[in-house]
Amino acid sequence: xxxxxVHGSEELRAEAASYRCSACHGDEDxxxxxxxxxxxxxxxxxxxxxxxxxxxxxxxxxxxxxxxxTTFGPKACVLQNPQTIMHIQDPASQRLxxxxxxxxxxVIKKIRDASLLQPFKELCVYLMEENNMIVYVEKKVLxxxxxxxxxxFGPVKRKFCTFREDYDDISNQIDLxxxxxxxxxxxxxxxxxxxxxxxxxxxxxxxxxxxxxFNFENFQSQVTQVxxxxxxxxxxxxxxxRVVKELRGxxxxxxxxxxxxxxxxxxxxxxxxxxxxxxxxxxxxLSNVDVYLDGHLITTVQGDACPAGVIVSTPTGSTAxxxxxxxxxxxxxxxxxxxxxxxxxSLSFRPIVVPAGVELKIMLSPEARNxxxxxxxxxxxxxxxxxxxxxxxxxRYPLPSICVRDPVSDWFESLAQCLHWNVRKKQxxxxxxxxxxDEEAGAGRAGS
Length: 448
Known about the structure:
Layout: H1 10-23, H2 27-30, H3 37-40, E1 71-72, E2 76-77, E3 95-96, E4 104-109, H4 117-130, E5 134-138, H5 145-148, H6 154-157, E6 161-163, E7 176-181, H7 183-191, E8 200-204, H8 219-227, E9 231-236, E10 239-246, E11 257-260, E12 263-272, E13 275-279, E14 287-293, E15 296-303, E16 309-313, H9 321-324, E17 336-342, E18 352-355, E19 360-364, E20 372-376, E21 379-384, E22 389-394, E23 399-402, H10 407-417, H11 432-447
Parallel strand pairs: 4-5, 4-7, 5-6, 7-8
Antiparallel strand pairs: 1-2, 3-9, 9-23, 10-12, 10-22, 11-12, 13-16, 13-20, 14-15, 14-19, 16-17, 17-18, 19-22, 20-21
Protein backbone atom coordinates (compact mmCIF):
# COMPACT_ATOMS: atom_id res chain seq x y z
CA UNK A 1 0.00 0.00 0.00
CA UNK A 2 1.28 3.46 -0.85
CA UNK A 3 2.69 5.22 2.19
CA UNK A 4 1.11 8.49 3.22
CA UNK A 5 2.74 11.58 4.69
CA VAL A 6 4.64 11.41 7.98
CA HIS A 7 2.39 11.89 11.01
CA GLY A 8 4.23 14.92 12.28
CA SER A 9 3.73 17.08 9.18
CA GLU A 10 1.61 20.21 9.30
CA GLU A 11 -0.61 19.00 6.47
CA LEU A 12 -1.41 15.80 8.32
CA ARG A 13 -2.13 17.73 11.50
CA ALA A 14 -4.67 19.77 9.56
CA GLU A 15 -6.16 16.60 8.14
CA ALA A 16 -6.37 15.08 11.62
CA ALA A 17 -8.03 18.16 13.09
CA SER A 18 -10.68 18.14 10.39
CA TYR A 19 -11.18 14.41 10.79
CA ARG A 20 -11.57 14.72 14.55
CA CYS A 21 -14.27 17.28 14.01
CA SER A 22 -16.05 14.91 11.65
CA ALA A 23 -15.86 12.38 14.44
CA CYS A 24 -18.12 14.45 16.66
CA HIS A 25 -21.11 12.65 15.21
CA GLY A 26 -24.42 14.27 15.99
CA ASP A 27 -23.18 17.72 17.12
CA GLU A 28 -25.62 19.42 14.77
CA ASP A 29 -28.40 17.15 15.98
CA UNK A 30 -28.32 17.87 19.70
CA UNK A 31 -26.31 21.04 19.89
CA UNK A 32 -22.88 20.28 21.33
CA UNK A 33 -20.53 23.07 20.34
CA UNK A 34 -17.21 22.32 18.70
CA UNK A 35 -14.39 24.78 18.00
CA UNK A 36 -13.78 23.50 14.44
CA UNK A 37 -17.30 22.53 13.44
CA UNK A 38 -17.25 24.64 10.28
CA UNK A 39 -14.32 22.79 8.75
CA UNK A 40 -15.84 19.38 9.38
CA UNK A 41 -18.90 19.94 7.23
CA UNK A 42 -16.95 19.58 4.01
CA UNK A 43 -15.13 16.41 4.99
CA UNK A 44 -16.04 12.74 5.11
CA UNK A 45 -14.62 9.82 7.05
CA UNK A 46 -13.09 8.37 3.90
CA UNK A 47 -10.94 11.49 3.54
CA UNK A 48 -8.89 10.64 6.64
CA UNK A 49 -5.28 9.65 5.77
CA UNK A 50 -4.11 6.10 6.43
CA UNK A 51 -0.57 4.80 6.81
CA UNK A 52 -1.26 1.08 6.58
CA UNK A 53 -3.97 -1.44 5.92
CA UNK A 54 -6.78 -1.33 8.47
CA UNK A 55 -8.46 -4.55 7.38
CA UNK A 56 -7.52 -6.31 10.63
CA UNK A 57 -8.78 -3.50 12.87
CA UNK A 58 -12.01 -3.96 14.77
CA UNK A 59 -14.22 -1.02 14.07
CA UNK A 60 -14.63 1.36 17.01
CA UNK A 61 -17.90 3.24 17.01
CA UNK A 62 -17.37 4.41 20.53
CA UNK A 63 -18.27 7.78 21.88
CA UNK A 64 -14.98 7.70 23.73
CA UNK A 65 -12.79 5.91 21.19
CA UNK A 66 -9.17 7.00 20.76
CA UNK A 67 -8.34 10.09 18.74
CA UNK A 68 -7.64 9.35 15.06
CA UNK A 69 -4.05 10.63 15.46
CA THR A 70 -2.29 10.33 18.81
CA THR A 71 1.42 11.08 19.02
CA PHE A 72 3.91 10.03 21.71
CA GLY A 73 7.10 12.04 21.59
CA PRO A 74 8.61 13.30 18.32
CA LYS A 75 8.34 10.07 16.30
CA ALA A 76 5.88 7.57 17.79
CA CYS A 77 2.17 7.53 17.03
CA VAL A 78 -0.89 5.30 17.00
CA LEU A 79 -1.67 3.67 13.66
CA GLN A 80 -4.79 5.34 12.31
CA ASN A 81 -8.08 3.56 11.91
CA PRO A 82 -10.56 5.21 9.52
CA GLN A 83 -13.41 3.40 11.28
CA THR A 84 -12.83 5.43 14.44
CA ILE A 85 -15.41 8.19 14.44
CA MET A 86 -15.38 9.42 18.04
CA HIS A 87 -12.75 10.71 20.40
CA ILE A 88 -12.21 11.35 24.08
CA GLN A 89 -13.65 14.64 25.29
CA ASP A 90 -12.71 16.61 28.35
CA PRO A 91 -15.83 16.55 30.58
CA ALA A 92 -15.24 20.17 31.59
CA SER A 93 -15.52 21.26 27.94
CA GLN A 94 -18.89 19.64 27.31
CA ARG A 95 -21.23 22.62 27.17
CA LEU A 96 -24.64 22.84 25.56
CA UNK A 97 -25.16 25.31 22.75
CA UNK A 98 -27.71 25.73 19.97
CA UNK A 99 -27.06 26.44 16.30
CA UNK A 100 -30.66 27.74 16.24
CA UNK A 101 -33.10 28.46 19.05
CA UNK A 102 -35.04 25.31 20.03
CA UNK A 103 -38.67 25.41 18.94
CA UNK A 104 -40.07 21.97 19.77
CA UNK A 105 -39.91 20.18 23.09
CA UNK A 106 -40.96 16.68 24.10
CA VAL A 107 -42.40 16.50 27.63
CA ILE A 108 -42.36 13.04 29.18
CA LYS A 109 -44.45 12.58 32.30
CA LYS A 110 -44.54 9.58 34.57
CA ILE A 111 -47.82 7.76 33.95
CA ARG A 112 -50.34 7.05 36.72
CA ASP A 113 -48.91 9.59 39.13
CA ALA A 114 -51.45 12.22 40.18
CA SER A 115 -48.82 14.31 41.98
CA LEU A 116 -47.23 15.18 38.62
CA LEU A 117 -50.34 16.63 37.00
CA GLN A 118 -49.88 20.13 38.40
CA PRO A 119 -46.14 20.36 37.57
CA PHE A 120 -46.94 19.00 34.09
CA LYS A 121 -49.57 21.69 33.49
CA GLU A 122 -47.35 24.49 34.81
CA LEU A 123 -44.43 23.41 32.65
CA CYS A 124 -46.51 23.09 29.47
CA VAL A 125 -48.16 26.48 29.96
CA TYR A 126 -44.74 28.05 30.53
CA LEU A 127 -43.23 26.43 27.43
CA MET A 128 -46.15 27.37 25.18
CA GLU A 129 -47.15 30.81 26.40
CA GLU A 130 -43.84 32.21 27.69
CA ASN A 131 -41.46 30.61 25.21
CA ASN A 132 -43.78 30.06 22.23
CA MET A 133 -42.63 26.45 21.83
CA ILE A 134 -44.35 23.47 20.23
CA VAL A 135 -44.96 20.82 22.90
CA TYR A 136 -45.13 17.10 22.10
CA VAL A 137 -46.63 14.64 24.59
CA GLU A 138 -47.61 11.01 24.42
CA LYS A 139 -51.27 10.57 23.56
CA LYS A 140 -52.05 8.48 26.66
CA VAL A 141 -50.82 11.33 28.90
CA LEU A 142 -53.72 13.51 27.76
CA UNK A 143 -56.17 10.68 28.43
CA UNK A 144 -55.68 11.08 32.18
CA UNK A 145 -59.12 11.90 33.70
CA UNK A 146 -57.64 14.78 35.71
CA UNK A 147 -56.49 16.44 32.48
CA UNK A 148 -59.63 15.64 30.51
CA UNK A 149 -61.88 17.18 33.19
CA UNK A 150 -59.77 20.34 33.67
CA UNK A 151 -61.57 23.04 31.68
CA UNK A 152 -58.93 25.65 32.53
CA PHE A 153 -56.29 23.50 30.86
CA GLY A 154 -58.42 23.05 27.75
CA PRO A 155 -56.97 25.89 25.62
CA VAL A 156 -53.44 24.62 26.26
CA LYS A 157 -54.38 20.99 25.70
CA ARG A 158 -55.67 21.73 22.21
CA LYS A 159 -52.24 23.03 21.20
CA PHE A 160 -50.39 19.80 21.99
CA CYS A 161 -48.83 17.61 19.33
CA THR A 162 -49.35 13.97 20.31
CA PHE A 163 -47.67 10.72 19.38
CA ARG A 164 -47.97 7.00 20.11
CA GLU A 165 -45.03 4.82 21.07
CA ASP A 166 -44.03 2.26 18.41
CA TYR A 167 -46.37 3.92 15.89
CA ASP A 168 -45.20 7.51 15.36
CA ASP A 169 -41.63 8.54 14.61
CA ILE A 170 -40.84 11.93 16.14
CA SER A 171 -37.06 11.56 16.19
CA ASN A 172 -36.49 14.34 13.64
CA GLN A 173 -39.01 16.77 15.12
CA ILE A 174 -37.74 17.26 18.69
CA ASP A 175 -35.18 19.87 19.75
CA LEU A 176 -35.29 19.34 23.52
CA UNK A 177 -36.64 16.71 25.91
CA UNK A 178 -37.95 17.49 29.41
CA UNK A 179 -38.65 14.58 31.78
CA UNK A 180 -40.92 14.78 34.82
CA UNK A 181 -40.59 11.79 37.13
CA UNK A 182 -37.88 9.36 38.14
CA UNK A 183 -35.07 7.55 36.37
CA UNK A 184 -37.59 5.51 34.38
CA UNK A 185 -38.67 8.60 32.44
CA UNK A 186 -35.10 9.11 31.22
CA UNK A 187 -34.83 5.46 30.17
CA UNK A 188 -38.13 5.79 28.34
CA UNK A 189 -36.93 8.93 26.56
CA UNK A 190 -33.83 7.07 25.44
CA UNK A 191 -35.92 4.22 24.00
CA UNK A 192 -37.86 6.63 21.78
CA UNK A 193 -34.71 7.67 19.90
CA UNK A 194 -32.82 4.90 18.15
CA UNK A 195 -30.55 7.44 16.47
CA UNK A 196 -29.40 10.88 17.56
CA UNK A 197 -30.93 11.99 20.87
CA UNK A 198 -31.84 15.62 21.65
CA UNK A 199 -30.60 17.13 24.94
CA UNK A 200 -32.51 15.85 27.96
CA UNK A 201 -33.43 17.95 30.99
CA UNK A 202 -34.67 15.65 33.75
CA UNK A 203 -36.59 16.88 36.82
CA UNK A 204 -36.54 14.79 39.98
CA UNK A 205 -40.19 14.03 40.73
CA UNK A 206 -39.91 10.28 41.30
CA UNK A 207 -38.79 7.96 44.07
CA UNK A 208 -35.02 7.76 43.45
CA UNK A 209 -33.88 10.33 40.91
CA UNK A 210 -30.26 9.26 40.41
CA UNK A 211 -30.37 10.36 36.76
CA UNK A 212 -32.71 13.33 37.28
CA UNK A 213 -30.68 16.16 38.85
CA PHE A 214 -33.10 19.10 38.56
CA ASN A 215 -35.57 20.17 41.25
CA PHE A 216 -38.87 21.57 40.04
CA GLU A 217 -39.20 24.49 42.46
CA ASN A 218 -37.34 26.95 40.18
CA PHE A 219 -38.13 25.32 36.86
CA GLN A 220 -38.77 28.61 35.01
CA SER A 221 -35.26 29.99 35.46
CA GLN A 222 -33.65 26.61 34.86
CA VAL A 223 -35.58 25.95 31.65
CA THR A 224 -34.82 29.46 30.42
CA GLN A 225 -31.12 28.95 31.06
CA VAL A 226 -31.12 25.72 29.05
CA UNK A 227 -33.08 27.27 26.16
CA UNK A 228 -30.52 30.07 26.06
CA UNK A 229 -27.78 27.45 25.75
CA UNK A 230 -25.95 27.98 29.01
CA UNK A 231 -25.53 24.59 30.68
CA UNK A 232 -23.09 21.74 31.14
CA UNK A 233 -23.92 18.37 29.66
CA UNK A 234 -22.79 14.79 30.31
CA UNK A 235 -22.73 12.41 27.36
CA UNK A 236 -24.17 9.12 28.56
CA UNK A 237 -23.03 6.37 26.22
CA UNK A 238 -25.56 3.79 25.10
CA UNK A 239 -25.27 0.21 23.90
CA UNK A 240 -26.18 -0.78 20.39
CA UNK A 241 -27.76 -4.23 20.60
CA ARG A 242 -28.78 -6.65 17.86
CA VAL A 243 -30.60 -9.90 18.61
CA VAL A 244 -30.52 -12.33 15.69
CA LYS A 245 -32.98 -15.22 15.85
CA GLU A 246 -33.11 -18.20 13.54
CA LEU A 247 -36.48 -18.69 11.91
CA ARG A 248 -37.64 -22.16 12.81
CA GLY A 249 -40.49 -24.19 11.34
CA UNK A 250 -42.41 -22.80 8.39
CA UNK A 251 -40.87 -20.12 6.22
CA UNK A 252 -42.47 -16.75 6.82
CA UNK A 253 -41.96 -13.29 5.39
CA UNK A 254 -39.83 -11.20 7.73
CA UNK A 255 -39.64 -7.42 7.10
CA UNK A 256 -36.17 -7.13 8.65
CA UNK A 257 -35.01 -10.64 7.76
CA UNK A 258 -31.29 -11.22 7.33
CA UNK A 259 -29.06 -14.12 6.43
CA UNK A 260 -26.93 -15.26 9.36
CA UNK A 261 -24.41 -17.96 8.37
CA UNK A 262 -26.64 -18.94 5.49
CA UNK A 263 -29.70 -19.35 7.71
CA UNK A 264 -32.67 -17.04 7.38
CA UNK A 265 -33.03 -15.09 10.58
CA UNK A 266 -34.93 -12.17 12.08
CA UNK A 267 -33.08 -9.28 13.71
CA UNK A 268 -34.09 -6.89 16.48
CA UNK A 269 -32.08 -3.72 17.04
CA UNK A 270 -32.19 -1.61 20.21
CA UNK A 271 -30.37 1.32 21.81
CA UNK A 272 -29.89 0.73 25.54
CA UNK A 273 -28.98 3.33 28.16
CA UNK A 274 -28.58 1.17 31.28
CA UNK A 275 -28.02 -2.50 30.59
CA UNK A 276 -28.72 -5.66 28.66
CA UNK A 277 -29.66 -8.52 31.02
CA UNK A 278 -29.42 -12.18 30.00
CA UNK A 279 -30.89 -14.57 32.59
CA UNK A 280 -32.13 -18.15 32.76
CA UNK A 281 -35.77 -17.19 33.12
CA UNK A 282 -38.20 -19.68 34.70
CA UNK A 283 -36.00 -22.72 34.07
CA UNK A 284 -34.58 -24.69 36.99
CA UNK A 285 -31.35 -25.54 35.14
CA LEU A 286 -28.09 -23.61 35.33
CA SER A 287 -27.77 -20.74 32.88
CA ASN A 288 -25.01 -21.52 30.40
CA VAL A 289 -23.98 -18.90 27.82
CA ASP A 290 -20.76 -18.21 25.90
CA VAL A 291 -19.37 -14.66 25.80
CA TYR A 292 -17.22 -13.59 22.85
CA LEU A 293 -15.20 -10.38 22.70
CA ASP A 294 -14.15 -9.21 19.24
CA GLY A 295 -14.68 -12.73 17.96
CA HIS A 296 -12.73 -14.53 20.70
CA LEU A 297 -14.40 -16.71 23.33
CA ILE A 298 -13.48 -15.14 26.68
CA THR A 299 -15.64 -17.12 29.10
CA THR A 300 -18.68 -19.29 29.63
CA VAL A 301 -21.16 -17.92 32.13
CA GLN A 302 -22.68 -20.57 34.35
CA GLY A 303 -25.11 -19.28 36.92
CA ASP A 304 -27.12 -20.79 39.70
CA ALA A 305 -30.24 -19.53 41.50
CA CYS A 306 -33.29 -17.96 39.93
CA PRO A 307 -31.93 -14.74 38.30
CA ALA A 308 -28.63 -16.30 37.21
CA GLY A 309 -27.07 -14.85 34.09
CA VAL A 310 -24.97 -11.87 33.02
CA ILE A 311 -25.39 -8.09 32.84
CA VAL A 312 -23.75 -5.99 30.11
CA SER A 313 -24.02 -2.36 31.16
CA THR A 314 -22.93 1.15 30.31
CA PRO A 315 -21.25 3.37 32.93
CA THR A 316 -24.69 4.92 33.48
CA GLY A 317 -26.09 1.44 34.14
CA SER A 318 -23.24 0.57 36.52
CA THR A 319 -25.14 2.27 39.35
CA ALA A 320 -28.33 0.29 38.60
CA UNK A 321 -28.75 -3.50 38.39
CA UNK A 322 -24.98 -4.02 38.02
CA UNK A 323 -24.25 -2.33 41.36
CA UNK A 324 -26.89 -4.51 43.02
CA UNK A 325 -25.07 -7.56 41.61
CA UNK A 326 -21.76 -6.46 43.13
CA UNK A 327 -20.17 -4.40 40.34
CA UNK A 328 -18.23 -1.16 40.71
CA UNK A 329 -19.87 2.19 40.01
CA UNK A 330 -18.37 3.98 37.00
CA UNK A 331 -18.66 7.65 36.11
CA UNK A 332 -20.55 8.24 32.83
CA UNK A 333 -17.53 9.89 31.23
CA UNK A 334 -15.41 6.74 31.56
CA UNK A 335 -15.23 4.94 28.19
CA UNK A 336 -16.19 1.41 29.19
CA UNK A 337 -18.57 -1.52 28.99
CA UNK A 338 -19.12 -3.56 32.16
CA UNK A 339 -19.72 -7.31 32.26
CA UNK A 340 -21.24 -8.48 35.54
CA UNK A 341 -22.27 -12.05 36.38
CA UNK A 342 -25.51 -12.68 38.24
CA UNK A 343 -25.20 -15.42 40.89
CA UNK A 344 -22.17 -17.06 39.18
CA UNK A 345 -21.53 -20.73 39.85
CA SER A 346 -17.82 -19.94 40.13
CA LEU A 347 -16.98 -17.71 43.09
CA SER A 348 -13.89 -16.38 41.28
CA PHE A 349 -16.02 -14.91 38.49
CA ARG A 350 -15.88 -11.21 39.31
CA PRO A 351 -17.25 -8.24 37.31
CA ILE A 352 -14.88 -6.89 34.64
CA VAL A 353 -14.64 -3.66 32.68
CA VAL A 354 -13.72 -3.72 28.97
CA PRO A 355 -12.98 -0.81 26.61
CA ALA A 356 -15.85 1.01 24.99
CA GLY A 357 -16.27 0.04 21.36
CA VAL A 358 -15.42 -3.66 21.64
CA GLU A 359 -17.93 -6.05 20.12
CA LEU A 360 -19.50 -8.57 22.47
CA LYS A 361 -21.45 -11.55 21.27
CA ILE A 362 -23.44 -13.77 23.60
CA MET A 363 -24.87 -17.15 22.60
CA LEU A 364 -26.24 -20.22 24.32
CA SER A 365 -23.50 -22.75 24.95
CA PRO A 366 -23.86 -25.95 22.87
CA GLU A 367 -24.27 -28.00 26.06
CA ALA A 368 -26.86 -25.65 27.60
CA ARG A 369 -29.92 -27.55 28.82
CA ASN A 370 -32.31 -24.63 28.60
CA UNK A 371 -32.91 -21.34 26.84
CA UNK A 372 -32.22 -17.88 28.29
CA UNK A 373 -34.10 -14.60 28.28
CA UNK A 374 -32.89 -11.11 27.40
CA UNK A 375 -34.26 -7.66 28.26
CA UNK A 376 -33.17 -4.13 27.37
CA UNK A 377 -33.37 -1.56 30.18
CA UNK A 378 -36.01 -3.86 31.68
CA UNK A 379 -38.17 -3.76 28.53
CA UNK A 380 -38.99 -6.00 25.54
CA UNK A 381 -38.07 -9.22 27.34
CA UNK A 382 -37.79 -12.20 24.99
CA UNK A 383 -36.46 -15.74 24.77
CA UNK A 384 -33.11 -16.64 23.18
CA UNK A 385 -32.59 -20.20 21.94
CA UNK A 386 -29.81 -22.30 20.44
CA UNK A 387 -28.57 -20.69 17.23
CA UNK A 388 -29.67 -17.19 18.28
CA UNK A 389 -27.12 -14.51 19.12
CA UNK A 390 -26.93 -11.19 20.97
CA UNK A 391 -24.39 -8.65 19.65
CA UNK A 392 -23.51 -5.64 21.82
CA UNK A 393 -21.21 -2.68 21.28
CA UNK A 394 -21.04 1.00 22.16
CA UNK A 395 -23.57 3.05 20.23
CA ARG A 396 -22.63 5.96 18.02
CA TYR A 397 -25.47 7.95 19.59
CA PRO A 398 -25.05 8.95 23.25
CA LEU A 399 -27.73 10.54 25.37
CA PRO A 400 -26.78 14.15 26.23
CA SER A 401 -28.05 14.72 29.77
CA ILE A 402 -28.07 18.33 30.96
CA CYS A 403 -26.35 18.95 34.30
CA VAL A 404 -27.32 21.22 37.17
CA ARG A 405 -23.66 22.10 37.78
CA ASP A 406 -21.19 19.82 36.01
CA PRO A 407 -20.79 16.07 35.28
CA VAL A 408 -18.52 15.36 38.25
CA SER A 409 -20.41 17.35 40.90
CA ASP A 410 -23.80 16.04 39.80
CA TRP A 411 -22.64 12.42 39.87
CA PHE A 412 -21.16 12.54 43.36
CA GLU A 413 -24.20 14.47 44.58
CA SER A 414 -26.39 11.62 43.29
CA LEU A 415 -24.17 9.04 44.98
CA ALA A 416 -24.52 10.84 48.29
CA GLN A 417 -28.19 11.77 48.13
CA CYS A 418 -29.70 8.73 46.37
CA LEU A 419 -27.41 5.81 47.19
CA HIS A 420 -26.03 7.16 50.50
CA TRP A 421 -22.56 6.21 49.30
CA ASN A 422 -20.07 5.79 52.15
CA VAL A 423 -22.52 7.13 54.73
CA ARG A 424 -21.60 5.97 58.22
CA LYS A 425 -21.61 7.17 61.79
CA LYS A 426 -18.51 9.25 62.48
CA GLN A 427 -15.92 8.07 64.96
CA UNK A 428 -16.12 9.92 68.27
CA UNK A 429 -13.16 12.20 69.01
CA UNK A 430 -11.34 12.41 72.33
CA UNK A 431 -12.52 15.00 74.89
CA UNK A 432 -10.35 18.13 74.99
CA UNK A 433 -9.01 17.44 78.49
CA UNK A 434 -7.77 13.99 77.43
CA UNK A 435 -6.13 15.49 74.34
CA UNK A 436 -4.32 18.09 76.52
CA UNK A 437 -3.16 15.35 78.90
CA ASP A 438 -1.82 13.29 76.02
CA GLU A 439 0.04 16.31 74.61
CA GLU A 440 1.60 17.11 78.01
CA ALA A 441 2.64 13.48 78.47
CA GLY A 442 4.23 13.49 75.04
CA ALA A 443 6.09 16.73 75.74
CA GLY A 444 7.40 15.31 79.03
CA ARG A 445 8.74 12.22 77.33
CA ALA A 446 10.39 14.34 74.67
CA GLY A 447 12.07 16.55 77.31
CA SER A 448 13.46 13.60 79.23
